């Protein structure tokens, strides 16, 4: 058994199933079962075992993921990585109940509104800061579609570690680039400067028309994950993101 336990009403409330009072009524109504048996006491302490999701059902559905949730989202164009801005938000792509979870689910880094691709989200604050920390230097790969053909010297310039972006006083770290076609390429960043990819190509007289992130660390965006859909990460997938300790 797990050493960690939590009161049933608090567990379900933290997962967004409702207020503490609403959850207590759900339990008394017989909507919650554990190992096939009705739970009727909202104060009962529940062992947070790894297999709890399969054993505890709420309204005949498996329990939502426990705290410590990390997921990947295929971010579509036109949605914003924010809790507060107006317009469509990435959190609106998640199950409505998940938006009420405690701790809150947050994005691990951001993609701007006009960019698409692999976005990680978690309710684990320590994990979030480990991934976004500059010390971790986790590489992120972007596919870039350009308005004009490449000149031919971009890869050498980006890899030189000498490119200075407008308005900044330190050059970029080296950025590997692979040419895919006359007007498309991939670049791999270990920094996260504001609109870095767009500003890099602007610095060489070009304009980014489409920007899509397809890899973080060694984790690729799955080909079978459509835009707007998400998937919970398992330990093996999460290990592909994290740098060795």
Give an overview of the whole structure:
With 245 residues, the chain is an alpha+beta fold. It has 3 domains: 5-62, RNA-binding S4 domain (Structural Genomics Hypothetical 15.5 Kd Protein In mrcA-pckA Intergenic Region, Chain A); 70-134 and 223-241, Alpha-Beta Plaits (2-Layer Sandwich); 140-216, Alpha-Beta Plaits (2-Layer Sandwich). It is 20% helix and 26% strand. The chain has helices spanning 8-14, 20-28, 52-55, 125-132, 154-159, 196-203, 235-241; strands at residues 5-7, 32-34, 37-38, 45-47, 56-58, 61-62, 70-75, 106-107, 115-122, 140-146, 177-181, 184-189, 208-216, 219-220, 230-232. The strands form 3 sheets. Strands 7, 8, 9, 10, 11, 12, 13, 14 and 15 form a 9-stranded mixed β-sheet that branches. The chain is elongated and about 70 Å long.
């Amino acid at each position: 058994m797990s050493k960690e336990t939590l009161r049933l009403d608090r567990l379900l409330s933290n997962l967004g199933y409702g207020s503490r009072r609403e959850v207590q009524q759900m339990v008394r109504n017989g909507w919650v079962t554990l190992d096939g048996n009705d739970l009727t006491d909202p104060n009962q302490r529940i062992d947070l075992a790894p297999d709890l999701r399969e054993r505890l059902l709420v309204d005949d559905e498996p329990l939502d993921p426990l705290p410590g949730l990390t997921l990947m989202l295929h971010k579509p164009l036109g949605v914003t990585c924010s809790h507060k801005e107006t317009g469509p938000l990435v959190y609106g792509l998640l199950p409505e109940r998940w938006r009420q979870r405690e701790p809150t689910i947050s994005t691990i880094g951001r993609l701007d509104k006009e960019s698409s691709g692999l976005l990680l989200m978690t309710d684990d604050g320590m994990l979030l800061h480990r991934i976004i920390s500059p010390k971790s230097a986790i590489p992120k790969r972007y596919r870039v579609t350009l308005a004009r053909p490449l000149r031919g010297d971009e890869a050498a310039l980006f890899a030189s570690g000498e490119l200075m972006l407008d308005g900044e006083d330190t050059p970029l770290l080296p950025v590997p680039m692979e040419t895919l076609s006359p007007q498309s390429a991939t670049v791999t960043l270990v920094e996260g400067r504001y609109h870095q990819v767009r500003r890099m190509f602007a610095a060489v007289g070009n304009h980014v028309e489409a920007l899509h992130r397809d890899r973080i660390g060694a984790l690729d965006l799955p080909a079978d994950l459509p835009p707007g859909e998400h998937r919970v990460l398992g330990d093996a997938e999460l290990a592909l993101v994290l740098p060795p300790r």
